[in-house]
Amino acid sequence: MDRCERVIGDRGNKGWRSLRISAALLGFLLTTTGTDASEPFEALSFEAALARAAKVDRPVFLFFEAPWVPQAARGVWYQPEILQMLQQRTVAIQLDIVRDEELARRFRIETVPALLLVGADGRERDYIVKPASVPELIAELRDALDGIDGIARAQRRLGGLNRKNPFRREELAYALDRQGRAEDALREYLVCLDDGLDNTFYAAARRDWLAQAIWRLGTTHEPAREALRTRQEQWERSLREDRDDVNVARNVAALHRGMDAPERTLELFDRLPQESKARRVVFDYVVAELITARRYADVVAMVDPQKHFDEQVRKARGGIACPCCSVSSIDQYGVEGAVAQHGARLVETLAALGRDAEARALLAAVREFRPGEVTEGKLRTHLERAGRIELLAGPSESQAG
User: Could you write out the three-class secondary structure of 221-232?
Assistant: First the structure.
């Protein structure tokens, strides 16, 4: 999990898409404390930071975070060597991806925490890849400030024993992508797709993001989308020949998600044999679509809703996002918001099927997991869809009414 990223949002063209929380960066931030009382970040707006950067001839250092990033994760910036670089060589400011949404979009923030260097002209100068340790962060920041660009740093990390490391190759692909070298980026992304997905750890951590990254690259570089379509056809053909290949099933479902084609995944789900392992894998990608289509019987035929929700809670608390929760993460409330949304959908399923006792038990579990007005709103929406709004109150209250 040290390189895995947690999915925290997918709002299509209305908001966050594919926004993730970097477990690697967050992990070492959480285990790091500082000793210097000086503040690493200046209380400036982005525009004021640019003006100050022009005046002192330094780049602006942007630290993008989110409301759900633990406060303890900020301690790394007080490490003496890091603090000194920020204070003496940059104009450093802290940004919030919810409050500063337009800036986050402008700079293509897809993970939090995210680290960038921006020139006084407001243009991105460097994107600092998520480091896995304090020494790595120090080296990355120093090299970036010394003018060694992200591509050169990524190429260096890919050398030697890391030559076949798909995580390192992806870093190079992303650096090329951010600097507009689409053809080179696609070549590296496809190595990750064709060879990297044979690596179990890489596939589990990066499959979905990789498909989305390549599809997004295709908005300006059509060969990227052509490459995904070709692999989609190949993998679907392979799945028709071996309907129990769970890895291929995951690959196909991830491609469909990256291509924003959930209907294709639903078609695949319907084609697979009822008892196949591949169908169970694909279910996690289509459960939201099944409930939206009111195919409640199909949902309970695949899983016990209470056990399924409990499993997603366990994964969320362990830093893992199931595909079903990344699909339903439609707000800015992070992984827990996604799991609560998923739970509300499952409450709808049980309520619509008339399984009232189970619906109430699950509703209580969702409330306990993430109490608050946002969760109540989600539960109300889904119980209204089921035509069972009375279940929002407890049994005694419903009888009294």
Answer: CHHHHHHHHHHH
